[in-house]
Structure formats: structure tokens, C-alpha cells
Design goal:
The complex is a heterodimer of chains A (174) and B (443).
Chain A lengths: L12 H5 L3 E4 L9 E2 L30 E4 L6 E6 L10 E8 L5 E2 L3 E8 L4 E2 L5 E7 L2 E7 L5 E11 L2 E11 L1
Antiparallel strand pairs in A: 1-7, 2-6, 3-4, 4-5, 5-10, 7-8, 7-11, 9-10, 11-12
Chain B lengths: L2 H17 L4 H14 L3 H10 L19 H11 L12 H4 L44 H10 L8 H10 L1 H11 L21 H9 L2 H22 L8 H10 L3 H7 L2 H11 L18 E2 L15 H10 L17 H4 L5 H4 L3 E2 L21 H9 L21 H11 L26
Helix pairs in contact in B: 1-2, 3-11, 4-10, 6-10, 7-8, 7-10, 11-12, 13-18, 17-18
Classes of the chains: A mainly beta (174), B mainly alpha (443).
Chain lengths: 174, 443
């Protein structure tokens, strides 16, 4: 997976995908990993995670939700920082939520996260990792650090149902 | 260089207005216009982020339970200036981190018992870092403070000697026990040899290894608490505002007169370059003018020094360090140790990389780079200005991009760097209770 990345188009990219870290969180080829019929709004079970529900999120205490569909159109990733505004020079955590573009939850994916500042051709100053499968298509990302204001990107390799997709989400760090 | 023509034109207009006796009100309006036209909103926001007034309060250090205890700072201050904490009774922390020199020593390679391979960086604002030493081989300020004490080139002491000094000195003894509880009896020379500790010297290491694990732990605990007290003191050492900070404050208040008083046109032009064309802001950002990250900028090796791998080795050392955030001597929980747990180790991005230093007081703290490779700011700026797209570096790849500054621009940039000098925010001098001539040396 690390060696065959179809997103490898930018000159700065080779350094990036070596940064990729991930976690196999279950039986990746299991058909049940897509929970058909569940809409994102119906799956939250823990009270403290209820705010992550797409579309109706209360983002007052956390960063804004950002969603992109992958290059292959298979999976959609929504990310949200635990903190708002995004902190500079401090390690913090994010949550990623994986669904199909139609909104069906993707559980037990192998998710790898990496990224950096494309304009400045450098990666994260830390090594972010997917550290937990929170259930309902949500994944914990720890170790995120931004060391300068500007345009940052988070890149995700998603593997589920024997299929791969690559998702890039861009945002500004104030 | 957008600012200069506009600046002169408007300054000229104002002079004419003044000479022809126009109303003061009109002059003030024109002045406001001139001030605001020099910087875009985005730039003003950037400048504000660089101002010392934007420095957020220092976060707690969960690895050091006494980090913000004034009693620990008082003890740490005494220890900091005490040359008894050395093999020859002449080297203290303040030997290389001199208050009069912004806590540096004016040397490229610090001089303790012997010459070290690296320069002593300033301590002003250092508490904000997540990583310590040029290669980040320690992950807390207290763990950093312990390194030089045991280094044969710096203080040259041993763990048992330092512990014994705390026990023997009545002031240290009392203050230590108030903070950390009862001190053990170290008088049994068989159990606690005169010189023992991890060391480059074989006999000292052998003596240490011959001690029981429990005794080693007793001694190490005292040693660690020396570091935690030193860190508590060092956390008080903050940079003070320079003329740059006055300029940003005046800019926000649209006070043209105060802006002119704070910085010359040449310095302002240098600031424009700093945040713009010269791209300094990429790594030297935030109120301390550092992103606290590790970067390979292709600095040549210092004369006579071997290959220096920088952060690539530093992060490996930190991960294995007996005093790191996850160690038994740290007061932090695993959740607190995110910097260590998520440290970037990738060779390609860490080889030859060194910590971006603060630029606060940079003009007053020559020489520069991790081993003093550059004697003055001219040499530093010349190095950056020589960068090409080849990314060539003595080891690994340089992160630098070509900036192609003219001779005039280099002068302006250097002028700006002088505006970052300001007196330390905390007076560091209360050294009551210790004397440099105190005969109670550790040896």
C-alpha cells in the first residue's frame, strides 16, 4: 500500500507517503464492514460523540466537519478536530468518519493518515496515527501537529471491502 | 520592496503639508492612511502572531510535578548558578547560559570541563519547546538539564556526587526535603562510591553498575529532582519585547509616530522580506520566532567535527531515554506523552535536521547554527541566499529554497533581525545562599 500510491503526483509526495501510518482494525474483506441501511444520523450511540453526526453537528467545542469523497469515488471521509481553533505547535487529536458517498457506514477499514503542507513541500512535524476504531465508521487520529499557519492537507488511504480509495482534505490553519 | 517608494512619497507629501501650514487634522488622517497602506490585513494578522504579546501562557509540564512550584524555582536558581555542580568546581549552568548574554556564551561550541561539539542555545522561552538539545534527544526541560551535569565535556560530575551535594549542603538539604521528602543517608562509601554514575569513563560506570538497583534508584531520584528544580527556575526565563513588538503594537493602534519610533524604514523593509520573499516565516514563526521543528538547512559541518546526523539520531535517543516522558522518573501519564509517542522518526525527514532556534535576541547571540558554523548574521543570511533548487546538503537534503535576495535586501533583513532584541522578562540574579567560592565542591 505504501509503495503504490496513485496520488503520487506532486513532487513533494514521495516523502509524504513514507510517513503514512495506519492500523488494521479488523477483517478488512468482511462484507459486513459496510453496514447497509444505517444512515450516519442513526448510528451515534455514545452521548459525547453525538455531536459528530453529519449535517447536524454542533461544532462549538470542536473544529468544523470537513468531508471529501475519494479519488476512486468509493469512500467518503469526514474529519473533525477535537479542538477549535486548530492549535499551532501542539499535538492534538481528530476523528475521521468513513462512509460510502451514499452515506453508508464503513466499519473495519484499514485507514492510513498522512499529510503536510503541499505549498511548502513538507509533511507533518509529527507522525499522526490512527489509534482506535471507535465504531460506527469512526476512527481516532492522534498525534496531529501543525507548526505553521497556512494551507494544510490530510491524506487518507482507505482500504475496505478489498477496495482502495484515496481521500485528500485541505484546510487552513489560522 | 513595495513599501519604500510609497513610504517616501507619503512622507514627502506630509512634509509639504506641514510646511504649507495645513491643519493638523488633515495630517493625522493622511498619516493613518499611510500606516494602513503599508500592510495588508493578512500581513497585519501575521505580524500580530509574531508579537510577544501573542505568546500564550506557558502550559503545565505534566512530567514535572514541581515545574511551577516557586520553592522548586528558588532551589533551581541556586543550583543553576552553583559551580560546585562540576568536577573542577568551576562550571555551573550559568557558565554557558550567561544571564548577561541572553543565557548564551558567545561561543560556537560550548566550553565546560572541555569543548563540546555543539553551541549553548539561549534559555529565554526555551520552556515552550517540546524537545531539547539541538537534536531533540530529550523531551523535557528537566531531563535536558541532567545531560550536561553528567557529560564529561560539560560539568563532568557523577550522579552520586550530585546527590551527595544535596544531602551535605544544609540549604539544599532543607529545601529539597520540603519539596521532595526525606533524603536518604548516602554516607556509606561502600554502598555509594564517591564517584559513580553512567559515564564515558569506565571505572565510574563500573562503580555505578556495582551498586544495588535500589541504591541506584535512590541516587537517580535525587538527581532527577535536581533537574526538575532547575527546570522550575528555567521556566521563569522569558524573552522581553524588542522594538519589533513595539512596532506591531503601534501598528494595531494606527499610531504612525510610535511605529516610526519603533522601527526604521530599512527595518520595516526587512520585516516585509522576513514574512515574504525570504520565507524565513516558514520555520521562524510564532512569538518566539520558531516552529520548534527540526529542519535540515544544509549547514556545513563545523571544523574538525565528524558527521552529525542531527534529529535522526536525536529522536532515537529520546525514544530510548531513561528520563523520557514515559519513564519511571516522569510524573506524566501516557496520555500526556503525545510528543514522544507520535514523534516523527523517518530518516529522510530527520537526517541532518536540527531544531529551529528562536530568533528572539538573535542579533545579540552570535555565533550561529548548532556548532557555531557562522560567525555573524551576514554569514547566516549568505548561507540562506546561496540555496539552490539542488537541495544539496552535507548529509541528507536541504529544506531550503532559493530566495535570491539582493545586497540591499540582505542589509534590510539583517536590520530587521536587530529589532528582536529586548531585555529578559525576568531578572535572573538572586543568587543568595550560594557563593562561587564555596569550598564544598563535589570533588
Amino acid at each position: 500500500m505504501r509503495n503504490k500510491n496513485p496520488m503520487s503526483t506532486g513532487k513533494w509526495f514521495p516523502a509524504f507517503f513514507l510517513l503514512a501510518t495506519g492500523l488494521c482494525l479488523g477483517a478488512c474483506s468482511d462484507e459486513k464492514s459496510v453496514s447497509s441501511g444505517n444512515t450516519p444520523a442513526a448510528v451515534t450511540s455514545k452521548p459525547d460523540e453525538a455531536r459528530e453526526t453529519q449535517g447536524t453537528a454542533d461544532n462549538t467545542a470542536r473544529g468544523p466537519s470537513m468531508t471529501e469523497v475519494g479519488k476512486n469515488g468509493l469512500f467518503q471521509v469526514t474529519i473533525q478536530s477535537d479542538e477549535a481553533p486548530l492549535p499551532l505547535n501542539r499535538i492534538h487529536s481528530w476523528t475521521a468518519r468513513i462512509t460510502t458517498p451514499e452515506g453508508r457506514i464503513v466499519d473495519n477499514a484499514i485507514l492510513m493518515v498522512y499529510g503536510g503542507m503541499p505549498e511548502h513541500k513538507h509533511g507533518f512535524p509529527s507522525k499522526p496515527e490512527v489509534t482506535a476504531n471507535l465504531g460506527d465508521g469512526r476512527y481516532r487520529i492522534e498525534g496531529v501537529k501543525f507548526n505553521m499557519p497556512g494551507r494544510w492537507e490530510m491524506w487518507f488511504n482507505v482500504r475496505a471491502l478489498d477496495q482502495d480509495d484515496k481521500v485528500i482534505i485541505s484546510f487552513d490553519v489560522p | 520592496m513595495k513599501i519604500s517608494p510609497l513610504y517616501h512619497l507619503l512622507a514627502g507629501s506630509l512634509a509639504l503639508l506641514a510646511l504649507s501650514g495645513f491643519a493638523i487634522k488633515a495630517t493625522a488622517t493622511e498619516t493613518d492612511k499611510r500606516v494602513d497602506s503599508a500592510w495588508s490585513d493578512a500581513e497585519i494578522s501575521m505580524l500580530r502572531s509574531l508579537s510577544l504579546h501573542s505568546l500564550t501562557p506557558l502550559q503545565a509540564d505534566p512530567s514535572n510535578a514541581v515545574a511551577d512550584d516557586p520553592r522548586a524555582a528558588a532551589l533551581g536558581q541556586k543550583l543553576f548558578f552553583d559551580p560546585r555542580l562540576s568536577a573542577n568546581g568551576e562550571v555551573s549552568c550559568a557558565s554557558c547560559h550567561q544571564p548577561d548574554r541572553y543565557f548564551t556564551d558567545g561561543l560556537g561550541q560550548a566550553q565546560g570541563i572541555a569543548t563540546t561539539p555543539r553551541g549553548a542555545p539561549t534559555l529565554l522561552g526555551a520552556s515552550y519547546y517540546a524537545w531539547f538539545f539541538w537534536d531533540g534527544r530529550r523531551d523535557s526541560q528537566w531531563a535536558q538539564a541532567l545531560g550536561p551535569l553528567e557529560s564529561g565535556q560539560e560539568h563532568g560530575g557523577t550522579r552520586v556526587e550530585f546527590a551527595r551535594l544535596i544531602v551535605a549542603d544544609p540549604v539544599y538539604h532543607a529545601e529539597y526535603e520540603t519539596l521532595f521528602g526525606a533524603l536518604p543517608d548516602l554516607s556509606d562509601i561502600k554502598r555509594f562510591p564517591k564517584q559513580a554514575g553512567p559515564s564515558a569513563e569506565r571505572n565510574i560506570t563500573d562503580a555505578w553498575n556495582a551498586m544495588s538497583a535500589g541504591d541506584r534508584q535512590l541516587v537517580t531520584r535525587i538527581f532527577v529532582n535536581i533537574g526538575k528544580s532547575l527546570a522550575a527556575y528555567e521556566r521563569l526565563l522569558m524573552p522581553g519585547p524588542g522594538r519589533f513588538d513595539n512596532y506591531v503594537e503601534a501598528l494595531q493602534e494606527h499610531n504612525a509616530a510610535a511605529m516610526e519610533e519603533a522601527m526604521t524604514a530599512n527595518e520595516v523593509a526587512g520585516l516585509k522580506l522576513f514574512v515574504g520573499k525570504a520565507m524565513c516565516i516558514r520555520c521562524h514563526n510564532g512569538p518566539l520566532f520558531t516552529d520548534q521543528g527540526f529542519h535540515n538547512i544544509g549547514v556545513p559541518f563545523a571544523e574538525g567535527l565528524h558527521l552529525d546526523w542531527g534529529r535522526y539520531q536525536g529522536v532515537q535517543k529520546a525514544l530510548k531515554d531513561e528520563f523520557n516522558c514515559l519513564s519511571e522518573y516522569s510524573d506524566a501519564s501516557q496520555e500526556d506523552c503525545t510528543e514522544l509517542r507520535f514523534a516523527k522518526t523517518l530518516k529522510d525527514e530527520t537526517i541532518g535536521a536540527f531544531k529551529a532556534p528562536t530568533l528572539r535576541n538573535v542579533a545579540a547571540t552570535a555565533p550561529y547554527m548548532h556548532s557555531g558554523q557562522f560567525a555573524d548574521l551576514d554569514a547566516v543570511l549568505d548561507h540562506y541566499n546561496k540555496a539552490t533548487t539542488s537541495r544539496k546538503a552535507p548529509i541528507g537534503h536541504s529544506d531550503l529554497l532559493p530566495i535570491n535576495l539582493t545586497a540591499e535586501e540582505l542589509v534590510q533583513l539583517k536590520a530587521f533581525l536587530h529589532t528582536l532584541t529586548g531585555p529578559p522578562a525576568v531578572a535572573p540574579y538572586n543568587t543568595s545562599g550560594i557563593s562561587p567560592t564555596n569550598p564544598n565542591r563535589i570533588r
